[in-house]
Amino acid sequence: MAFKFTEENTRRIDLARKKYPTALAAIMDTVWIAQEQNGYISDEVMTEIALILGIDKVQVLSVVTFYTMYFTKPMGKHHVQVCTNVSCMLRGGAEIYDEVSKSLGLEHLGVSTDGKFSLEEVECMGSCGTAPMIAVNEDYYENLDKDKALEIIKSLQ
Amino acid sequence: MEKIVLPDIPNFDKIEVYKKHGGFGAAKKAFKMTSDDVIDTVKKSGLRGRGGAAFSAGLKWSFMPKTTDKPKYLCINGDESEPGSFKDRQIFEYNPFQLIEGILITCYAIGAKSAYIYIRGEYHKWVKLMQEALETAYKDGFVGEKMKKTFGTDFSCEIYIHKGAGAYICGEESSLMNSLEGHRGYPRIKPPFPASKGLWGCPTTINNVETITNVPKIIEKGWEWFSKIGAEKHPGTILYGISGHVNKPGVYERPSGTLLLDLINNEAGGVIGNKKIKCVIPGGSSMPPLRGDQLEGIKMDADSLRAAGSAIGTAGIMVMDEDTNLLKVLLRISRFYHHESCGQCTPCREGTGWLEKTLRRLDSGNGTSADLDLLISVANNIEGNTICALGEAAAWPVKFMVDRFRDEFEKYVKTDVVIPVNNKVHSMRNTANPLANIKH
Question: How many Å lie between the alpha carbon of A36 and the closest alpha carbon of chain B?
Answer without folding.
Answer: 12
